[in-house]
Amino acid sequence: MPTPLPAARPHHVVALLNDPQSPFELACAAEVFGGVHAEVPARYTFEICARRPGPLPTTTGYPLLVESGLDALRRADTVVVPGWQPPGGPVPDDVLDALRAAHRRGARTVSICTGAFVLARAGLLDGRRATTHWRRTGQLAEAFPEVSVAEDVLYVDHGDVATSAGSGAGIDLCLHLVRSDLGSSYAAQVARSMVLPPHRDGSQLPYAPPPSLTGPGTGRGTGTDASLAPVLEWALTRLAADLSVGRLAAYAGLSPRTFARRFVRQVGVSPGQWLLQQRVDAARSLLERTDLPVETVAVRVGLSSAVNLRRRFRTAVGTTPGAYRRLFGEAATAASAGTAADAADAADAADAADAADAADAANR
Question: At what angle do helices 184-193 and 169-182 cross, to 10 degrees?
Answer without folding.
Answer: 140
